[in-house]
Specification:
Keywords: Membrane, Transmembrane, Transmembrane helix. The chain has one domain. It has nine helices and five strands. The protein starts with a helix and ends in a 7-residue tail after the last strand.
Length: 300
């Protein structure tokens, strides 16, 4: 605990020092997009923030009351898929505001944002999880349908987790951009803020689910310290790229959004593998295309 406190205090101290070199605008910056100028993104971020309260409450109850002990492979799919469904179905069934309702599906910000997050989440589960297996000796031991030896339910859980993370990172980056004037100092401060928030996000996820016994590490302290930095690589790449999605008047096409998510996924993969090589750890991906572990009545 003391180590993590010192790490976070050092990050805050560095950001505090860097902030002295920033030149503020004459008016306060804003956390959310301008409602009139970027209605769709504004409404989406408000919706994502409100929904975050709901899914976090659900997960907290599941862990606190150990309801996961009653879940089988289908129960995990039902819980995680059910919590992801409102986010995934919203662009189809409940467009956010009159402007989005008048747009074709592929032009709606909420649809592009969901596509971006889903692609990045799937890449993370399908590929990056094996780096956690190899580098941090992580294990998932719950009953699960598995794709490439990764519980499929996690793809859906990651979707609502990452929606929340990237919404908060949008707020942070927008506040920085609208509070201080462009300069080299602001660029350095922005980069440092992304790194700090990425590390904080990664640590908090690992810490808050530490009471869940079916996700374990060989060395819990290493998972908190080094593992948070390893996991934070995801967000060092994804936070600034996702923020740019429809942030200005020049809107992304669905194709551009998907390509940026895929490109971000590839860059993260390269960085994770670079870390693995620097640590001198051999890598082998041994997962089957489709399997079921500890499943009730399922064929393995």
């Amino acid at each position: 605990v003391l180590t993590m406190v010192l790490i976070f205090l050092a990050q805050l101290a560095l950001l505090g020092l860097l902030s002295f070199a920033l030149a503020p605008y004459s008016v306060p910056g804003n956390w959310l997009p301008e409602p009139k100028g970027n209605e769709s993104k504004y409404l989406y971020e408000v919706w994502a923030l409100k929904y975050s309260i709901f899914w976090i409450g659900c997960f907290a109850a599941i862990v606190a009351f150990q309801m996961y002990e009653r879940l089988d492979e289908n129960g995990y799919m039902l819980v995680c898929g059910g919590l992801a469904a409102p986010l995934l179905l919203q662009p189809f069934l409940a467009p956010l505001g009159p402007r989005e309702a008048a747009q074709p599906l592929a032009q709606r910000y909420s649809f592009k944002a969901n596509a971006w997050i889903f692609i990045f989440s799937h890449i993370g589960n399908y590929w990056y999880t094996h780096y956690f297996y190899t580098v941090l000796k992580a294990r998932y031991t719950m009953p699960a349908w598995r794709l490439n030896d990764v519980p499929l339910a996690l793809t859906f859980a990651t979707h609502f987790y990452f929606t929340t993370y990237h919404t908060f990172s949008n707020l942070m980056l927008r506040k920085i951009e609208t509070t201080w004037r462009p300069s080299s100092a602001r660029a350095v401060f922005t980069a440092a803020s992304v790194v700090a928030f990425a590390y904080f996000t990664a640590f908090m996820e690992t810490f808050t689910i530490s009471a869940y016994p079916d996700y374990s590490f060989e060395d819990r302290f290493m998972a908190y310290t080094v593992g948070s930095a390893f996991y934070g690589i995801y967000f060092i790449v994804s936070f600034p790229v996702f923020y740019l999605l429809d942030e200005t008047a020049a809107k992304h096409t669905l194709f551009q959004a998907c390509m940026e998510a895929l490109g971000s996924g590839m860059l993260v993969l390269m960085l994770l593998d670079l870390v693995r090589l620097l640590l001198g750890i051999p890598f082998a991906m041994k997962g089957a295309l489709w399997s079921c572990t500890d499943c009730k009545g399922a064929r393995h």
